[in-house]
Structures are given as C-alpha cells and as structure tokens.
C-alpha cells in the first residue's frame, strides 16, 4: 500500500508540474507581451513598460515561471491587476460560495442516485426499471444551465419559494446561505445524479451475477441481505470512481451555474477576469482548479486502493 | 425499451436535426440576421411558426441555423479527437509497456485533469472567444478519450491468434495496426464518436451560453438561451425552445449511441439478454 501511495504521489507531483508549465506557457508566453495584451490596443509605451515592471516581466521566462510557481506553493497568487488586491484574498472570499455549492450538489447527487440505482437494479427488467432508465436518459441530455433557468421560472418566478439569484453571504446565517444555494445545487446535481444512478445500477447488476452472491444466497441469506451486505459493498468501487470524477465536473459546472444565479463565486471571478483581461487572476484560478481536480483524483485512487487490494498491484 | 427501438428513435431524432441544419444552408423561413423591431416578441403564429425574439428575428430560423453551429462545432471536435487520439492509441498499444506508451497515457491523464470548460477558458483568455476556439477546446478534450478507447480495444486484439499469425507472416507493427487492429475497433470508435458528439453539443451550448462560443450574429442555441434569460418573466417561450432543441438533439444522439453499442457489441447483447 505504501509503495502504491508513493508511486501515485510521485505521478501527482509530476502532473502538477507539467500542468503548471502548460498554463504558464499558454497565458504568459504564447500571447507575446502580456502587459501589452492586458492594456489593449491604445496603450502608451510608457504604460506598457510600467506594467511590465509591475508584473515582473523583466526576467527570463524560466525565472518568471519559478517565481510564479514558487509563489503559488507558498500561497502567494500574485496581485490582481484590476482589483489591486492579492488574488489569494479574492479566491478565499469566493471559495466560500463555490466550494459549498459543489459539495451541496455532490451530496444531492449521491443521495438521489443511490436509492434510484438500487431500486432500478433490484427491479431489473420491470416497469420501474424502464421508467428510471428513461428518466435518467433524459436527465443526462438536459444542460444544467437550462435546467437552472427552468427552476428559476417555476420556483422563483411563479411559486416565489426561492429568490432568482444572488447570495446573501454566510453572515446572514447558515440557512439563508443554503437556501440561496439550493436551486443552483439542484441544477448541478440532476445530470450528475442521472449518470451516477446508471453507474450504480449496472455495477449492482454485475455484482449480483457473481458467484459469491449465489453462495451467500445458498447459505440462507435473503435477497435483501445479499444485496445490502455483499453486492452493495463491491458495487461501490466503480461508483466511488465516478463520484471522484464528478467533483471536477461539479467544480467546472459551478462556473457556469454561478453565472445563471449571479452567485459571487470563482466562476463569476473567472469570467470577469477574462473580460477585464486580468491574466494574473485567470492564470492562478485555472491552476487552482486543475490542482483541485488532480488532488481529488489522487485521493480517490488512494481511497479505493485501500478498499480493494487488487488495485494496488496495477500501478 | 426494446433493442432496436431506441436505435430507431435516436436515429430519427438525430436525422431531424441534421436535415434541419442542412436545409438551413439553402432555405430558412426568414433571414436570421435581419432585425425587424416592428415584429419583436411575436407569439407563435402563421408567419412566425415559433414566434420572434426581442430583435424580431424568427425563432424557427434561428433554431435551424443554431443546429448547424452546434453540429459543426461538435463534429469537427470529434474529428480532432479521432484524428489525433486514434493514432496515439494505436501507437501506444503497438508499443505496450514502452516509454512511448507511458508518455502517451500520462499525457492523456494530464488533459483529463483540465475540464473542457477550463481549457476553453484558457484558450479564450488568450485568443478571444470564437466558434473556432470552442472547437479547439472541445476537440483537445476528445483526444484522450479516443486514445484510451483505441488503446484499450487494440490491446485486447494484440493478444489474439490472428495477430500472432500476421506477425509470423512478417508484417510490421504499423501494418498490423492499420490492416488488422483498426478495422476491428471501428465499432468501438463509432459508438464513442456518437457519445462524444452528444457531449460536444452540450459543451458548445454551455460555452456559447457564457459567451465563449460562436459570436453574434451567428445564431447558436446557447447564446439564444443567454439572451432569453433576462426575459423569462415576460417571454418564457424564448428560454424554453432552444433548451428543448438541445435536449432533443442530445437525447437522440445518446439513444442512437446506446442502440449502436447494443447492435455492434455482441457481449453487451448477451449480458442484457
């Protein structure tokens, strides 16, 4: 297990380095002069020169990369050109919207998908199963931002149960915050829950066909006991992988959903930074997102190597 | 749903959109770029079958041309994925366990770590938003998908006797890959291509919704939704129709993909039966 963890940790480190080089190259090397790009067409040479100094563009590419990457490691993400505040402060503020949103959606998606997948697998081939499979097929096809608009139409415009957007901040209490995140979380969770329910169903059906389930039944366990005690645990391996993958989709999906509901999260920040050509913010935010995805994938890998010893051999 | 039924429903839905997109090259009920303020926000009727938007543009015409944008972006993105991913997968499988294989597969993992939306953000931050950059962002994400499917399919073929026979006959790895491996993984690629096509439609819609896709005046479903968002209080139909179009198209492709997989992969058929 330790050997497996170490190999995986090494490849985690390598992925992070390569990812940071790619992001740095795309943002700072390909456009030519980032300072000229950020200031636009009508910038005076003096202004460009001043910004170059401010951005630390005078050094060589290698020293600039090392400076940026080293800063990221120590929590210094640079200073936003438009907001004139450290990017770390901007991120910290907005992470308190984006992260709870992604986790809320992940919880919803899991809570919906588990029972639904379980029921469909237990009633395989029946009308309930066909109904569930049809519904999940539809759920996968619905774009989450459109589903979000439909939710706003029904629950905010017509029923007035929720507000159509905005975020009161956690200072107004946990419930007010959660209420503001509820529609966005449902919109994010629906397509993911549909995928997860289908994975859950097929994983369960596969384990139910295994010999050890027949043995368990032969020993006198009821169907329900066999499913809950033996099949479910083994079916969880592929399900866990998908949940891990979904976290990155949810984080990326949150970027779009935040724009539907005008939530002050990382997604809004990214798009504002793009329109304002604030490359420092874009660069650091993209790196953070990729960092989150790589680390979560790593943790999921470790978690299920711990659950399933067979996977450790396959490094 | 019975085997075959979902294939036909899926293929039918997909065909409707393909035909609408093709037809839009030659004819649309109205000009999609002509602004006609006098006829703005008309309800569904005889002249404008699905009504008009806030600029008086015909919704049906915009949906037809929007289908063209979606399909073009998704199709070219799948083409990029196949064009680069399949050769990489074949090479990796032919040199299994070598450094080359390792590099290709780790490179794939790395691209997977960038959600396609994040790739799109990176590209647009530098090159500005356009349909071309949307294609690039979605296409780059398709490369590792096809590389994996190809490598996985090819690896299982490389162990078979007829490949051994071909090697004994003196054929090189390249020739075996092209003559024996590739034709036998075509089914896999067709199924994966359909799935990636539908994901591409969804991704294009999302990108153009946030303004990172096709730019005005080119109609696209995602941007129609973005423009309709401020009018959901007064004109909900504007926000519903483009969404329905996306759902129907994606649903059609997904059903077709599932149906094709059942049809082309006998193992799935046996497992289901």
What keywords describe this structure?
heterodimer, A: 315 residues, mainly alpha, MetI-like fold, 78% helix, 0% strand, B: 273 residues, cell membrane (chain A), transport (chain A), MetI-like_sf (chain A), transmembrane (chain A)
List the helices and strands and how they pair.
The complex is a heterodimer of chains A (315) and B (273).
Chain A: H1 2-29, H2 34-39, H3 45-55, H4 61-73, H5 87-122, H6 127-141, H7 144-158, H8 174-208, H9 211-218, H10 223-261, H11 266-275, H12 279-307
Chain B: H1 5-26, H2 59-94, H3 99-112, H4 116-127, H5 131-158, H6 161-168, H7 173-184, H8 186-209, H9 221-228, H10 236-264, H11 266-272
CATH domain class name of chain B:
Mainly Alpha
Using only C-alpha atoms, the radius of gyration of chain B works out to 22 Å
Number of helices of chain A: 12
Distance between the termini of chain B: 13 Å
SSE order of chain B in H/E notation? Answer: HHHHHHHHHHH
Radius of gyration of chain A: 24 Å
> Which bin fits the share of residues in helices of chain B?
over 70%
CATH architecture grouping of the domain at 95-311 in chain A: Orthogonal Bundle
Which regions of chain A have little confidence, pLDDT < 50, spanning 5+ residues? none
Helix content of chain A: over 70%
Main CATH class of the domain at 95-311 in chain A? Mainly Alpha
Please provide the count of β strands of chain B.
0
Q: Structural class, judged by helices and strands of chain A?
A: mainly alpha
Give the gist of this structure.
Chain B: This is Peptide ABC transporter permease. The complex is a heterodimer of chains A (315) and B (273). With 315 residues, chain A is an all-alpha fold.
Describe the structure.
- Chain B: InterPro entries: BP-dependent_transpt_permease, MetI-like, MetI-like_sf.
- The complex is a heterodimer of chains A (315) and B (273).
- Chain A is built from 12 helices and no strands.
- Chain A is an all-alpha fold and 315 residues long.
- Chain A has a domain of 217 residues: MetI-like (MetI-like fold), CATH 1.10.3720.10.
- The mean pLDDT of chain A is 83.
- Chain B is mainly α and 273 residues long.
- Chain B has a single domain, classed as Orthogonal Bundle (MetI-like fold), CATH 1.10.3720.
- Chain B is built from 11 helices and no strands.
- Chain B is elongated and about 75 Å long.
- At the A-B interface, helix 1, helix 6, helix 7, helix 10 and helix 11 of A face helix 3, helix 4, helix 8 and helix 10 of B.
